[in-house]
Amino acid sequence: MSQLVRTVEETDKTPRIISKLTDLPPALNPKLDMREMSGVIAAMAQFPFKLPRHVLGQLRDHGPSSPILRQFLPSAEETRDVPGFGHDPVGDRAANVIPGLLHKYPGRVLIVATGSCAVHCRYCFRRHFPYEESRLNSEAIDRILSYVQQHSDIHEVILSGGDPLVLSVRRLGELLAGIDAIAHVKRLRIHSRVPTVMPELLTTEHLALLTSIRAKVVLVNHVNHPDELDDDSQRLFNQLRLGGVTLLNQSVLLRGVNDDVDTLCRLSERLFEQGVLPYYLHQLDKVAGAAHFNVSEERGCKLMAQLRTRLPGYLVPHYVRETAGEISKLPVRCKDEK
Predict the structure, then answer these.
(1) How do the domains of the chain map onto residue ranges?
(2) What does the CA dihedral 173, 176, 177, 181 come to, rounded to 10 degrees?
(3) Which residues contact 102 (CB under 8 A, 6 or more apart)?
(4) Which neighbouring-strand residues pair with 101?
(5) Which of 226, 247, 271, 257 is nearest to 58 (CA)?
(6) Distance between CA 127 and CA 130 in Å, rounded?
(7) What distance, in Å, lies between the first and last C-alpha atoms of the chain?
(8) Are 40 and 74 in contact (CB under 8 A)?
(9) CA 62/CA 48 separation, integer angstroms
(10) Which of 50, 78, 87, 241 could bridge across to 120 with cysteines, CB 3.0–4.6 Å?
(11) Cβ atoms 291, 255 nearer than 8 A
């Protein structure tokens, strides 16, 4: 453990969830001039700052410039109006067939299980999503389950959000039970950051739910940097794998976070050590407020070519983009590919 992190853990009174920059340990608080601070305040008004204390233990003496912290610290750059970056970059609203249910792709649907997350990623493609219109009360859940029941071609249900693993055992259990009772649903896929950013949320009862249903459970984790993986994530992944859960990972290619081949190699290798298979490397969704994270596809293709020379094929993620209106995610076509 670094001296910086040890000092933070032993001496400060950092809240479990950090929602103000002033609650960050002094060594991690970015030094901003008045103009920058004004922009940061405006960015936080658009999309609040939220960071679990657990993440502080993953830093490696980089202070505010840490590639992990960069994902979560608000920036004045978020307030820039950049052409091509909008509020609904992947066409979620058009696919919202009933409130809380997205049906984009054949054979599967996505339930917006909650608007809450354990952490706020500054590049989140749903940072402008109208969650208040998709609240999952009992009536909404009944409508969603009825839709799935009536469409026998739906074989996979995806729980996303927000982050479905922030739900209470009772709420999550009710939702899983309803889905699992629909015979033609063969797979339940859950997208989450909880195992790496706030693992204490996953109780024994949560794990029992995920490992006891009929449908095959796939947990797609969201990890962008190898230092996000620690002993706590290893413990959770071991328990989930023993319970029959398939573990995958999706990353987003982010400038200043993982846009170098060494970091991406270490990420794939570290994931596999923890029993998680690299699945997707996403080109950044062009959501308003995240343009400063963008890496060109040309640069992404060069990184993928380098990865293929250094890793076995099963550790090389698929480089993809999501395009509104398409019936699947699309591979990013690189010049060196036929």
Answers:
(1) 3-79, 92-331
(2) 180
(3) 92, 95, 96, 109, 110, 111, 112
(4) 98, 111
(5) 226
(6) 9
(7) 46
(8) yes
(9) 23
(10) 50
(11) no
The pTM assigned to this predicted structure is: 0.93
Are 247 and 275 spatial neighbours (Cβ–Cβ below 8 Å)?
Answer: yes
pLDDT at 15: 81
Is the N-terminal amide bond of 243 cis, ω within 30° of 0? no
Percent of the chain with pLDDT over 70: 95
Quick one: tokens of 44?
A: 């936080």
Judge whether residue 38 has pLDDT over 80.
yes
CA–CA separation, 141 vs 240, rounded Å?
26
Q: What is the pLDDT of residues 275-318, one digit of tens each?
A: 999 999 999 999 999 999 999 999 999 999 999 999 999 999 99
pLDDT in tens, 194-240: 999 999 999 999 999 999 999 999 999 999 999 999 999 999 999 99
Chain CA centroid to CA 281, Å? 12
8-state DSSP, 51 = E
CB–CB of 190/142 below 8 Å?
no
* Amino acid present at 127: R
Residues 154-177, mean pLDDT to the nearest whole number: 96
Q: Return the CATH architecture of domain 92-331.
A: Alpha-Beta Barrel (3.20)
